[in-house]
């Protein structure tokens, strides 16, 4: 079997993927009742040596309910009427998910507001305060 290229650093052997063909529901007439066209692609993320720990963590978050308690990623493809199309879709979704997990999120750098931004904020605050003061009803005995 071959290798599946995820990123430049990450490759996964096809032997580590487990594909199971099951009967699909939906349109297809009597064909649905006799042919197993839906694909369940399984990949053991927890015991995979080809994935770094950081990618495994991000993948666990991204996968959500697609990940079992034992750390197995399950992708179910049943949109097409043929095994080959469903198999292709499952693999594409698998690679897309792994590529998203491999992208390291950029960390936010804290910045300070500029002096001009602070002045502008305080000026707008003062203008708003003045506007609201002019809307107040005048009490008897108060002079403007």
Account of the 3D structure:
This protein has 144 residues and is an alpha+beta fold. It has a domain at 3-102: Double Stranded RNA Binding Domain. It has four helices and five strands. It has helices at residues 31-34, 53-63, 83-102, 115-135; strands spanning 3-5, 11-13, 17-22, 38-44, 72-77. The strands form two sheets. It has a three-stranded antiparallel beta sheet, with helices on one face. The N and C termini lie far apart (88 Å).
Summarize the structure.
The protein has 144 residues and is an alpha+beta fold. It has helices at 31-34, 53-63, 83-102, 115-135; strands at residues 3-5, 11-13, 17-22, 38-44, 72-77.
Topology at a glance:
Elements: E1 3-5, E2 11-13, E3 17-22, H1 31-34, E4 38-44, H2 53-63, E5 72-77, H3 83-102, H4 115-135
Helix pairs in contact: 2-3
User: What is the number of helical segments per DSSP (H or I, 4+ residues)?
Assistant: 4
- The helix/strand class is alpha+beta
Beta-strand content: 15-25%
CATH-defined topology of the domain at 3-102: Double Stranded RNA Binding Domain
Largest sheet: 3 strands, antiparallel
- Give the strand line-up of the largest sheet: 3-4-5
- Gross morphology is elongated
Strand runs, count: 5
Poorly predicted runs of 5 or more residues? none
Distance between the termini: 88 Å
Q: What's the quaternary structure here?
A: single chain
Approximate helicity band: 25-40%
- List the secondary-structure elements in sequence, H or E: EEEHEHEHH
Write down the Rg.
29 Å
CATH architecture of the domain at 3-102: 2-Layer Sandwich
| CATH classification class of the domain at 3-102 | Alpha Beta
Integer average pLDDT: 83
């Amino acid at each position: 079997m071959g290798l599946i290229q995820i990123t430049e650093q990450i490759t996964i052997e096809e032997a580590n993927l487990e594909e199971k063909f099951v009967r699909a529901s939906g349109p297809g007439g009597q064909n649905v009742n006799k042919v197993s066209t839906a694909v369940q692609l399984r990949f053991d993320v927890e015991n995979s040596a080809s994935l770094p720990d950081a990618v495994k963590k991000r993948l666990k978050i991204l996968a959500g309910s697609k990940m079992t308690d034992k750390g197995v990623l399950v992708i179910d493809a049943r949109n097409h009427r043929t095994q080959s199309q469903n198999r292709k879709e499952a693999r594409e979704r698998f690679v897309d998910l792994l590529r998203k997990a491999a992208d390291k999120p950029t960390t936010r750098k804290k910045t300070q507001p500029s002096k001009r931004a602070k002045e502008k904020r305080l000026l707008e605050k003062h203008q708003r305060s003045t506007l609201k003061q002019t809307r107040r009803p005048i009490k008897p005995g108060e002079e403007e």
